[in-house]
Amino acid sequence: MTQNFLPEEDFEKLKKREESLWIAKTRFDNDYMEQILAPDFFEFGRSGKTYQRSDTLSHEYREINATLPLKNFKIHPVSDDTVLITYISEVQDETLEIGNRSSLWIKTPTGWQLRFHQGTIVKN
Predict the structure, then answer these.
(1) Based on the structure, what is the number of domains in the chain?
(2) Edge-to-edge strand order for the sheet containing 37-44?
(3) Does a structural domain hold residue 2?
(4) pTM
(5) Is 77 part of any domain?
(6) What are the tens digits of pLDDT across the range 52-62?
(7) pLDDT category, 3, cuts 50, 70, 90?
(8) Count of alpha carbons within 13 Å of 38, Cβ hemisphere only?
């Protein structure tokens, strides 16, 4: 499903990149993540803690039991080269954790990069 303001090719690239953050093979591949994360990337984690790019790149490998495709995936235009992606995450650990997610992506000469991410836990 594409959205009017965004070419289908960009929609698919962004969806694939966002979902790659929920797949251990790509999420913990530092060469891949170096390309994906903007130099000034930061995140407000579900814990309320703020993470910088270096924190994200130093996470140890672990399995991620996330539901894909991402639920309620939407892309919202901010400007010609910036989009806000929103969706609902479902991750199964000891319990099912549901979260509202948002990511700010910017289009650079080398492709789309993630500048900001926020996760907010939804109470069940």
Answers:
(1) 1
(2) 50-52, 37-44, 111-122, 96-108, 82-92, 71-79
(3) no
(4) 0.91
(5) yes
(6) 999 999 999 99
(7) low
(8) 19
